[in-house]
């Protein structure tokens, strides 16, 4: 599953540099997670780093992007080696 940021976000900026996939960016009003890049930190860390640092706990799983762990690994492999077959 990709994660998502809710409108409880206070734009504190601490999650953005923690993401190993550069999936977090500042949107029009609050920070956003690109579901194509979020692997729930699979491939990098045991726990989602953004969730670990968010002071207001506003990063739940994104119900629009339900993925298995195998699918998250496949996404990770694509992100780190996009030209590998
Ligand atoms: Fe980035 Fe990991 Fe948070 Fe996904 S769970 S947005 S990969 S820090
Ligand atoms: Fe928003 Fe949480 Fe990220 Fe801070 S850490 S910018 S509150 S999502």
Molecular structure report:
The chain has helices spanning 49-53, 69-80; strands spanning 24-26, 31-33. The protein is globular. The protein is built from 2 helices and 2 strands, in the order E-E-H-H. The model has no long low-confidence stretch (mean pLDDT 95). The protein has one domain (16-83): Alpha-Beta Plaits (2-Layer Sandwich), CATH 3.30.70.20. Strands 1-2 form a two-stranded antiparallel ribbon. It has 85 residues and is of the alpha+beta class. A hairpin with a 4-residue loop joins strand 1 and strand 2. The two termini are 23 Å apart. The chain is 20% helix and 7% strand. Bound molecules: iron/sulfur cluster (2 copies). Residues 5, 9-15, 31, 53-54, 56, 58-59 line the site of one iron/sulfur cluster.
* Cα separation of the termini: 23 Å
How large is the radius of gyration? Answer: 12 Å
Helix content: 10-25%
Strand order of the largest sheet: 1-2
Name the descriptors.
85 residues; alpha+beta; Alpha-Beta Plaits; 2 strands; binds iron/sulfur cluster
Draw up the topology in text:
Elements: E1 24-26, E2 31-33, H1 49-53, H2 69-80
Antiparallel strand pairs: 1-2
One iron/sulfur cluster is lined by residues 5, 9-15, 31, 53-54, 56, 58-59.
Task: Quickly describe the structure.
The protein is α+β, with helices and mostly antiparallel strands and about 80 residues long. It has helices at about 50-55, 70-80; strands at about 25, 30-35.
